[in-house]
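Readers of this paper often ask what the protein records in our data store actually look like. An entry from our holdings is shown next, in its original layout:
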Amino acid sequence: MADPSQRRSKLGSGVRLREVWAWSMYDFANSGYTTVVITAVFSAWFVGGIAGEAPWATFAWTAALSASYALIMVTAPLLGAWADARAAKKAALAFTTVGCVLCTALLWFAGPGMLVPALLLIFLSNFFFGSGENLIAAFLPELADSEAMGRVSGWGWSFGYLGGLLSLGVSLAYIAWAQGRGQSAAEFVPASMLITAAIFALASLPTFLVLRERAQPRPAAQRASAAALWRGTLATLHRAGEYRDLRRFLLCTVFYQAGIQAVIALAAIYAQQAMGFTTQQTITLILVVNVAAAAGAFAFGYLQDAIGHVRSVSLTLLGWLVMVGLVSTAENSAVFWIGACIAGLCMGSAQAAGRAMVGVLAPQERLAEFFGLWGLAVKLASILGPLSYGALTWVFAGNHRAALMFLGVYFIVGLLLLRGVDMRRGADAARVARPAS
């Protein structure tokens, strides 16, 4: 007889809620890295402290991140295919987790003038982080069926934003304490890297202790060379007749995620340059947006299961367009804060909804490989969005409002591409897909 919680939540066969919680805890664990290292603390310290506010400092920072995303794009399908063939998603996830935690902790040593070590550690830590994102996502279709995938994905994303808030809150509390004792940024920023690494390591333990690897090894696929794995990945990309809806959604993902990733990477800069926010106001902004994103990811998962995947993602993209209109024309902080809250709600819901759609459209025997392709699309967007925003601010002579308004094109293109995705047809193609050889 099925477990009552399984019947209510429509989880996968043999899956209990505690395992879903353990899976969600990985999103909780790793989100502190992006919130503290990439967005709120270390990025500013790199530009102002390590690079001494050199005119090329911001470019160097974005170049290191872009290079790591490019490497993830190359390796994600290979890593996914390797993990599928050996039923080793969990082992690969452990490797990437240890890599990100160690590289984050080693940022303790990145002091003023240590440009090359700092950039190398950012490159490596971000590479391990992004690779781990793909692997943890590949467990989703094993945990929930298509009727519950939206809400389960939403649980993970909402936990993730809460984890980011925890890491940021603990780090900021330490920074306030350190500043009260007269410490400089050269002392308290490295310590916040240790705090972030420790929270990542500890919070991820439930994932490795409770989450099960349900896939079965495929001996024939284990003998495949890297070249053979890439040929298989390229074949997957070109088999439009079998996976036309997944392929279209991945292209849609590139566009709408380009807009989202630009907002994520440059929200603090926009707040300061266009709205005149202080550092304290900017930190408060990040906290509020994360709270809104957590609420959006959690609640929207249920709405997605109720109204369907395509409709729900369309709603989030319309929300993004509303945000662009409000924020790019805001003349007072009240309108800006409304737009920022909408961005948070749409950020969480769009991320969770997109991951759930891939889970429905991906063949069950090649989950890690197809989530690797999804990761490839997101990482391409992570390069395209911020770089295009930067180019637009250059073209418009530092006009951040005009640059943000032009980013709305990404969401419009995403909406148009999404209209051609047929979830029923795509799910049928995934069910009859041939296994990888």
User: Anything to note?
Assistant: Residues 1-8 have pLDDT under 50 and may be disordered. The domain at 16-211+241-431 is CATH 1.20.1250.20 (Growth Hormone; Chain: A;). The chain has one domain: 16-211+241-431.
